[in-house]
Structure formats: C-alpha cells, structure tokens
Amino acid sequence: MTMLQGFQIALHALRLNPLRSFLTMLGIVIGVASIVTVFAIGSGAQLRLQEQIRSIGANVLMITPGAVYQGGVRLKDGSKLTMTEGDVQAILEQIPEIQAAAGSLAGTAQVIHEGKNWNTTINGTTTGHFMVRDWQLASGRYFSGAEESGAGKVVILGSTVARELFAAGDDPIGAQIRIMKVPLEVVGVLDRKGPAQDDVAFVPLSTAKLRFLGSASNINRDSVAYIIAKVAADGQMAGARAEIESLLRQRHRVPAGQEDDFKVQDPAAAMEAQQGAIRTVALLLVAIASVSLLVGGISIMNVMIVSVTERTREIGIRRALGGRMRDIRLQFLCEALVLCLLGGAIGVAGGITLSMTVARMAGWVTSIDSEAIGLALAFSIATGLIFGFYPAHKASRLSPIEALKTE
Amino acid sequence: MTALPLISLRSVSRTYRTDGVAVTAVRNVSFDIAQGEIVAVMGPSGSGKSTLMNMIGLLDLPSEGAVHLEGANVAELSEDRRSSLRARSIGFVFQSYNLLARHNAIENVALPLVYCGVSRKERLARAEQTLQAVGMLHRAHHFPRQLSGGEQQRVAIARALIASPLIVLADEPTGALDSRTGAEILALFAALNRTGQTIVMITHDPGIATQCRRTIRLHDGELVSDETVAELLPRRSAAS
Ligand SMILES: Nc1ncnc2c1ncn2[C@@H]1O[C@H](COP(=O)(O)OP(=O)(O)OP(=O)(O)O)[C@@H](O)[C@H]1O
Ligand SMILES: [Mg+2]
C-alpha cells in the first residue's frame, strides 16, 4: 500500500464522520491559528519598531526637559523648557565626540497650498537636525545661514506633507505655502524615512519662535523643547552621554544631590529593549499556543484509539485480505496526519483572517510571514506523527484472528 | 504423484494456552490438497475446523508440524510475506460475509488488490468483471446494508476471487443463509470449481458436503476421515 492510498483511505474514513473529524481537529485548529496570529502581530510590532529605530538615525542621543523644582515642589517632567540654544552650542563646542546637534521646538498646525490643506507637525530647528538624523533631501536644499539667523520665511517638507499638498507632477520647490497665515517658500523636500516620520514640516528655529510660537508664555527667547545630538561612533555613546550630563548640570547650576532638570536618552537602545520585550511576550504566547497544540494532539490520539477499537473488525478483514502490519499502521497514521494537516490548514486560514481583522480593527501592523506558517504546519505534522503513532501501532499489532472475532 | 500438492499439512497441531490451561484445537493432522479440488471440512462445533482453516489461510501458524503452500513451509516466511501471500493466493469467505460496511460493493471487491499494489483504475475494472461473474454487477454501488444476505455473500465471494487466488477458503459460507439461498451459493462454488478453482469449505450441512467430491471430518481436533467420492466409486465398482 502506498502513502497516497493511505491518504485516500484516511480521507474516506474521515468524510464518513465530518462533525467528529472536525471536533477532533479543533485543538489543532485553535493552536495553529493562535501561533500564526501571535507571530503576525509580534513580527508586525517588531517591524514597526525597527522602522522607528532606523528613522531616529544611528548613535543619536536625545535630551529632553527633566524635573523642575519650584519652591521645593517637583513639577512634572517637561513642564518647563529647560534647554536653550546656548546648551546646543556648548554641547557642540565642548564635547569632541559630538558631530552634530540641533535644538527643536515643535507644535501642530494647518499647512495650506492653493486649495489643499493638511494638518501636520511643525518643527522649528536648524540644519544640524538633518545631519543628526542622516536625513537626505529628495530635492531642493537645507536652510541657509541667513535664513537660520534671520527668521527666513522658508520651509522644508516631509514627503507625506509634500504629497498631500502638491499634485503628482507638481514641483514643490519654490512654491509658496502658508502656515498660520504666514507665507513660506518651500526650499526642500526630504527623502522618505517612514510613515510616522514623513508627516512633518521643518522651518528654521528662529522662524518658529518669531512667527509661530513667539507669544507662548513658557518659552524664553532662547528655549528649545529638546536637543538631538549625534555621537561620532557607537563605542562613544556612554562617554558622550556622561559628558553632556555633567556639562548641562554645570550650565543649569543644578545643586549637587538634586535631580537633573534634563534627561539624556538613547532612543534606539530604549526601543531595542522594547523589541526584546515584544519578543519575550510573543514567545510566551507561542508557548501557550503550543499547549493548545499538545491538547489537540492528545485529543487526536484519544479519538484514534477509540476509532481503532471501533474498527477492530475492519482491521481483521484488511489483514485477512492481505494487509501487512505496516499497511494498517500507515492507514491509521495517515488518518492522524490528515486530521492534523487539515486542522493545520484551517488553523492557518483562521490565523491569517484573525490577524488581518486585528490589523484592521485595532490598527496594528501585522505581518504574516511564510516562516510562521511553515512552522505551524510543521508543528501539526509533528503532532500527527507523534500522537498518531501509538494508536496506529496498536492497530497494526492486533491479531487478525482475534480482530475478526470481534463484533 | 510427482505433481506438488497445492497445500500440504504434516502432523499439524495447534495448542492454545490461556491462563496456564492448554487447549489443543487441532491434533496431529496430515493431508494434501491438490490443485482443482473442492473439499468439505466437517465436524462438530469446537472440533477445530476454523483453527485448521486459519492455518491453511496463513492467518495462524501450527504449534507443531508444518503447513506447506506450494512446497514452501509457511512458518519460515516472514509475517509480511505471509500477508502478501494472503492478498495474492488466498481468498477468504466468511459466514458473516465481513464486508466493510462503509464501502460499497465494488470497493469491497477491489480491496485485496489494494494490497497487491494494483492501480485504482485497474482495481475497479477487475472488480466489475468479478462482480459480473457472480451476478452482482447491478449492485456494484450498493452498500452492504442495502444488500440481502445472499447478495452480500456473492459480493464476498467476488472479493475472494478478485486476485485469482490459488485457493478459496470458505468458513460456513451458507451458515447464515436460508436453504434456498444457501443452495444458490453452493451452486456458485460448484461452478467455480468446474473452472478449476480450488476450494476448501467448512460446513455443518451433510447435504452440502455430499456435493463436494472430498470430505474431511474432524473430531476433537483429530482427523477422523478423509474420503473422496470419485476415488471411492471406481474402487467400489472395481470390487463388485
Ligand atoms: N484463541 C483461542 N484461545 C483458546 N482457545 C481457542 C481459541 N480459539 C479456539 N479455541 C478453542 O479451540 C477449539 C476449536 O475451535 P474452532 O474455532 O477451531 O472450532 P470450530 O470447529 O470452528 O467450531 P465451530 O463449528 O463452532 O465454528 C475450541 O475448543 C475453542 O474453544
Ligand atoms: Mg468455526
């Protein structure tokens, strides 16, 4: 008897009792569906994080406002802008490992070009910002020195904003757009960096202060919301960080023993840690899903044992008609395999459907990779072989004479 | 006497041991069966007929003595080889038909060929021919429960014949049938035998046994008589 005949016999037997067959494979269906879904959501989350890490740029430190004490009361982190353009200058000049640094102020506003408008992040910064983030231009140029110092009415668009405001064939360079009634000339359009990054418009820091944010009360003439700095080499991150901390403590006159009024972070490292956490959670969920596979396998074994008992006479007949022990074993093994493969296939389909539904309803990024599907199917084949072997072996060992005597 | 017998039993015994108690179901039985014979095996219940049949059919092995099939000692063959021989050389017919309930007549008839490695197409073609030969082609796609006892037994006989076996072994093939249907089945066996098919048939019915040229009688596992009508008749006429 060939494998193919084994599968034919198995399919015939399983078709006779479709409900029972389905219930038998339910555990496998659920297990495989969970594995596929968990993998899809997990790798989607990782992809997103990786994109974010890439978009920040390599070896970047980010300095944000920290705790502020007012009359002995600790205010929330970031409630006051504690960094200044002077800090940026000092970091650049006094710390040799720093290649580039830039301060930023950011808010959201409506950007208008002819009939079209788009709500986006307005980031006031200097050309250093693009150096820190290794962010190239798709067309045009960065800000000139005169524009940076003299609050030039110029803007550099992220690719999303350019796409939203300009028709496909239209060249944005040189066009006039308006932000909060202020007309600005588009001097550059940036390369794409990722969906979350490209939705932004950059203006010179001086322009942002003078024309958009100047009246805000919590902003000094000199303040910036955050600073980003690029360290020359990976190995210098820790050293550069320590130097920035001591420099800023000194500049901000933070008394010894008191908390810094700023925070220096390594966003890529933080995200990598987050990525590790996602991986751990995903592995845990896969482990739980595997338990479901195990339960599914046991349920298959259970039903197969019952089936062998019920079909003892059939086994006797097949043996009398010339079926070898291995033919009987193959027949029942094929049945278990078909159950598991069918369950696995239904599970894969269910898992794909489920993760696509999650993607649509929760707005998560999911990614279905063939590796996860292969793994899930391999798991179900293994389950079929492991849990099908014992009943199949038992069936093959039955004495044909005894088997023929049973009712 | 140079022709090799199809089956030969030499001092065959079969002892069952259950819970330390030994039951000898067949004791020191020897006989040959030649190609083309039709043999009735008779004896009271428990006399060892089925046990004997299982050994001839390679389902069981003797505790002592030897069974030879075409000169080969079956005990020296591997289990797999004996299974393959069952598929190709032995055709079983049972009192309770033993058709697979979930397969229709033609699939049941084709079943032994699965274990002979015959393709599905050829299996079904040969099953049709064989069903035709037993007059059951019109029921090819009926399931066993849709057939009468006599019809089921015809299908079972077709299944026994499909691989063109050396020998057909029938254990009380008419035991579950009324006398008329039983007679029809018997007529089918007689017709098969006329085409040269070797048949061994267990029966309780002396009427059936008289229709077989040779009758072997067992009692308490021992062979008590082995008579061949064709042999006896000329001898009788020669003596008279
Ligand atoms: N598996 C077994 N274990 C123990 N004893 C057995 C076994 N099979 C048969 N026997 C015994 O062997 C003896 C012969 O049994 P067998 O089935 O060959 O008789 P039989 O002539 O076919 O009877 P019947 O006409 O009732 O079918 C009986 O005494 C029976 O109890
Ligand atoms: Mg019997």
What report would you give on this structure?
The complex is a heterodimer of chains A (407) and B (240). Chain A is an alpha+beta fold and 407 residues long. Chain A folds into 2 domains: 3-52 and 272-405, no CATH class; 81-89 and 99-230, no CATH class. Chain A contains 13 helices and 14 strands. Chain A has helices at 3-15, 18-56, 85-94, 128-132, 145-149, 159-165, 205-213, 237-252, 267-310, 312-320, 325-362, 370-397, 400-405, and strands at 60-65, 68-70, 73-75, 83-84, 98-113, 116-125, 137-140, 154-157, 176-179, 182-190, 200-204, 223-224, 226-231, 262-265. In chain A, a hairpin with a 2-residue loop joins strand 5 (98-113) and strand 6. The longest helix of chain A has 44 residues, at 267-310. The model of chain A has no long low-confidence stretch (mean pLDDT 88). Chain B has 240 residues and is of the alpha/beta class. Chain B has one domain: Rossmann fold, CATH 3.40.50. Chain B has helices at residues 49-56, 79-89, 105-114, 120-133, 149-161, 179-194, 206-210, 229-239; strands at 7-18, 21-33, 38-42, 64-69, 72-73, 90-93, 167-171, 198-202, 214-219, 222-228. Chain B is globular, with a radius of gyration of 18 Å. Residues 231-240 of chain B have low confidence and may be disordered. Classes of the chains: A alpha+beta (407), B alpha/beta (240). At the A-B interface, helix 1, helix 10, helix 11 and helix 13 of A face helix 2 and helix 3 of B. The site of adenosine-5'-triphosphate has 12 residues of chain B, from strand 1, strand 2 and helix 1. Adenosine-5'-triphosphate (ATP) is lined by residues 16, 18, 23, 25, 43, 45-51 of chain B.
